[in-house]
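FW: tagging you since you asked about this chain on Friday. Here's the raw sequence from the shared folder, copied in full. Didn't touch anything.
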Amino acid sequence: NYELARLYLEDFSSSDLLVQARAYSLIGDANMEQKKYDEAARYYSKAADYKPNKFFSPIYLMKLALAYEKLEQSDKAIKTYQRVIDEYFDSSEVQNAKRYKARLEKNS
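HL: got it, structure written out here
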């Protein structure tokens, strides 16, 4: 039950910054499953910016870009993919970010 999970996670709070960022990402996931793409984007953005790090932030940014694609906001998706490329160039997400960005630019 995504709605119930989302409600529990919204009440969750942790002093561990990485755990809190993960909770924001999970709320984003629940919203994506419910096709609430605006809310998903908001939480993925919070997750990526809460305690930026090279391991999890690129993953959260990729999810954010996908939410923007679902919202048909290609310009924001392209900027988000570029952010992964620029800020997390040694991440395993970079190759996908480059590919998805190129696809969007080709179709724009």
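FW: The chain has one domain: 2-107.
HL: agreed, and Helices lie at 2-11, 17-33, 37-50, 57-70, 74-87, 94-107.
FW: great, closing this out.
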